[in-house]
Amino acid sequence: MNPLNQPTDQAASAPSAHSVNKPKVRLSCETCRQRKVKCDKLDPCTNCQRLGARCVPVERARLPRGRSGRLATERPGDQDANLKDRVSKLESIIRDLARGGSQASARAILAAAVEEGSQDGENSLGDDDSQAGGVRTPDTYLGSSFWANLLNEVPDIHPNERRGSKGDDRNAETTNLINYRRLLTMASGGTTNSEPPCSSPTHQQLCCLFMQRVDPLCKIIHRPSLKAFLVDGSPYLDYEPGHLAPTALAYSVYYAASCSVSDEESMRSFGIPKSSMVARYQKEAEAALARADFITTNDLTVLQAYVLFLLALRSQDQSRRMWTMLSMALRIGQALSLHLPDPPFHVRPFERELRRRLWIAIGFLDVQASMDRASEPMMQASWLESHPPANVNDIDLSPNMEASPQDSPGFTDMTFTMMIHKAQYVTRSLNFSGFMEPSVTTLAIRQQLVLEFQQSVTKLLQHSEPDKLLLHWLTRAIAECTHASMQLITLRPLQRAPNFTPPHVRGDRLLEFAVNVLIVSRRLRSDPRFATYQWIEFAFPPWHCLAVALAELCVCDDKAVMERFWDPIEETFHQLGRLVADSQRGMLWKPMEKIMARARERRAQLLTTPSPDAYSLTTTIQQQQQQQQQQQQQQQQQQPISMQIDTQGFVPGMDSRVELEQAVAAMNTPESVDCAWPNVWDAVDFSYAGPGTAQMAWTNYENFVAEFYVNVDDPLVNR
Question: Is 633 within 8 Å of 684 (Cβ atoms)?
């Protein structure tokens, strides 16, 4: 050091030392001052610790009291010193960025910024990740350490500060922040997997489980190509080794497979609880999708991975996450022109089949999510019918094929998927209003759609062997359940339709039919053969059948009928809460509880009034109604067929009249007669429009549907 500079340095440091030695007063920190909340003036203060924000203390020299207050003129100097100190910090940040920021790793810079700027929040996030056995996912919505430090130095624009927040809501806000950080991490990447996708026996075992349990029910992948990649270790299709797209597909396969096992199977085969394994592979699948940039991708394989991820997510998560995230899959599919029969670019036959399979898988998730919450689907039915995939086995497809495959007449790998594809098309037409496309409100045409589904499925299953093969048995069982449910949807649509008048169903046939659907659905879920595919039960909860049955019970006048059907209805009510969307807190279950309460009140009334006179009077009224119905049937036999059906104020033209006659003729075909499920059409009185208990049951059902739209705006429901 130059001796000539020593006096100058000492003189310069004297005021600083003098100012440090002055007694100081702690004021509210910068964060609390900006948020306009009371600060306890600790270092750091309690509010900043709770928010995970950096506490910037504010101090000033203690002002002299009395007439010596002239010394207060030193305050502007202290403020200038504080301002200069903050400016110098900002200048040092800029110098550090210019010196080495551009050469640093983006991930290291980001980790440092998160560690410094929101240490408390990251500790809670890290604990969550470590408990789940996954990979830590840092905050990737901050661009670099420069912005992190800048936000810490300038509290006015700190992202963690929210005005008007209450202490009671901070824990929930922290949890939501962690979830949103994971979502944003998926959008931009930032984590790494510890091992390649096909390196361990566990991964190979999960791949085999996927091909046995998941792939047959949701045909998206070409199974031979996937087996060669994950089991044999060959490159996936024409991708180079280590490509991000096949890696994302691999971890989505592992995640879906982990969701398909039971708790006992997970402990026996993998030695860990199912919840831990599912959480681990969910995080790894999210990380792989993020690195593959799934939101802006043009890669079909990445979209396949994302759709598989959503399918597995819905099997474990009953919240709105999948319902919301599905919109991204639809938009990505449209960006890839999956909705067009002939995309504006060259597509090989093999890729064309994979594109069509993926598109109807998105359609299945769309209609299932719509049924979950009685909402409108995003996709139009015409988008699915214009270019369906071929009903062929995977071995009939190869990456080098030069011509499109032809449909196979037998039971193929695609038969179950094709049956679901036809079911979702009919369900869209029957259940939903004309918001996206014209709805079908004419009863005869609705009936014809169900009959056409039955004929199509009969043709698909004509070579099936349900007594020998498990998948054949499952396909036929679900097809029969679906066909029966469609008959109920025809008579009791999900959406409110002002122009729809329900037909009269004679006697208790509608109640009996709905209860039969509930009984067979319960037997299917409890069948030991269904255990292999138990993970898919979320897609077929018979809540609509339960609602129809409860609406009929609310107007039941026969105690014997009430007691006959009460036990299966109540048992289904108790079991169904875990399957519907948002479980027993969701928008579906609140109306279900209300109509169940009314049915219980009606049952209590019948049990407490065992009057024989009232019972005989009810029997007499029923006999009179039956005689009237028989007279009406005799009159109908003397009318043309088209006039028997057209009693809802609809005057058909020539084309519609032909359709109605074809619909009635189809009811007498062998395909429609040979069905394991009872048929409700023979009990429908198309000409009866008078008041009675049927109209009251319809009113109860309409009130049940109307409750959907009340709960959808409830802030306490569906969070």
Answer: no
